[in-house]
Amino acid sequence: MVLETGRLTLHRLAPDDAAFILKLLNDPAFLKFIGDKGVRGLDDARNYILTGPMNSYERFGFGLYLTRLKDSGVPIGICGLLQRESLQDPDVGFAFLPEFSGKGYATESASVVMQHGRTQFGLERIVAVTAPDNLASINVLEKLGMRFVSMIRLTEDGPESKLFAPDD
User: Fold this and answer.
1) Fewer Cβ neighbours under 10 Å: the N or C end of the chain?
2) Number of domains in the chain
3) Neighbours of 149 (CB within 10 A)
4) What CATH number does residue 100 fall under?
């Protein structure tokens, strides 16, 4: 376990989490707002974990974490910090299965992840990126004290995203 809140535990992702990642990354809301990662089977999900989150832990010390309900241990989503080549600052990211959305878990987990980034890794500025029409995520980011800064593209041919940064 990496982090804990009143209701949640956050753990480093491992290849054993492939079935959950397969389900999450193919959820219609994930596909609509975050994008299609091309994960179609358990092997794809294991590869995603190895080349994404686990690679990030090795390179930066942080990454996306599996988020579980503390009481039952049920996995409900992912939350963590990403260091993208196209952004100067790390960004907080999160995604939850639909049955766990709207319950405050994104705000709760993102808040502790950002605090962890500041205290453990000395990150002075953490930003966020979201699809322009992802109103639920925009609401979470505003609760975290972030405000819309500008429209950006994470890749040259990628869709436009909203960049959020802390109120300084």
Assistant:
1) C
2) 1
3) 13
4) 3.40.630.30
Other Cβ atoms closer than 10 A to 65: 27
Q: What is the mean pLDDT of residues 50-61?
A: 98
Position 14, amino acid: A
Cα–Cα distances in Å, from 34 out to 17, 124, 125? 19, 25, 22
Domain that holds residue 28: 3-166
- Distances from the Cα of 18 to the Cαs of 7, 46, 47, in angstroms? 23, 5, 9
User: Strand runs (DSSP E) across the chain, as ranges?
Assistant: 3-4, 8-12, 64-69, 75-82, 91-96, 127-130, 146-153, 160-166
Q: How far is the C-alpha of 93 from the C-alpha of 142, rounded, in Å?
A: 14
Interatomic CA distance for residues 77 and 86, integer angstroms:
25
pTM: 0.96
Q: How far apart are CA 59 and CA 49, in angstroms?
A: 14
pLDDT at position 144, please?
97
Whether 1 and 11 have beta carbons less than 8 Å apart is answered as yes
Sorted by sequence, the CB contacts under 8 Å of residue 132 that are 6+ apart come out as 151, 160, 161, 162
